[in-house]
Amino acid sequence: MALYGFQEGISQMTDDNSDALFVCASLNILHVFGVFGPLYDGPTASRKSRILGAEWIPTIRGVGAVLGPVYERVRFGPLSPLLGLGNWDELDPNDHPGAEDSHYRSIQEVWAQSHDAEVYDNALYHLRKCNAYMKQFKSMNPQVLAEWGYNQAWSGPFIWLHSSADGYFELLQQRQPPALLIFAYLGTLFHSLNDYWFMDGWGRNMVDVADELLGEYWSRWMAWPKAVVGIGA
Fold it and tell me: A GO molecular-function term, please (predicted)?
């Protein structure tokens, strides 16, 4: 019934229902992580595809596309604090790298000669930016933190999912090694959100699946993300 109402609302977006559609879409994201998380009891054969985002990534990225027409209405309405991203637009990880930035940069050599290097570079840049965005909250003045608004460290990975290009996600579904490496390093950021019930176990699963698919040759670059999530410890 709720899904039917949401679909009906999307087909008739107005000033009156824009806030409700935004809230419903946001709750849908939590539902996605709950359904496709570690407790998922679907076919074992689909585990790798599920964790790699065959379904959940398009669903989450699709929220932005669906709500695009009502974004301006929500931005100037009572739910505007939910859309603020602080200094995300100005943040440059080259000028202000986050903690452990060197680990993220170390994988760039892998695709230096690839025809898809630009796609991977873009995905990695936004991942480093996401890392810097999330880590800044650890040293932020409590007063500034209180004034920051709703979107703090927890929103980092979701910003990355919406910021990265379609081309990267196509390469990920093709299971290209550089795309899998980036996905594993994204898993370390997901892992830092383990205290949120809907994120519990996600980061470890992401790193684990990427490691299984990559194999021994890539162990040099997988050592750090595996250590972060506690695989092989």
Answer: DNA-binding transcription activator activity, RNA polymerase II-specific
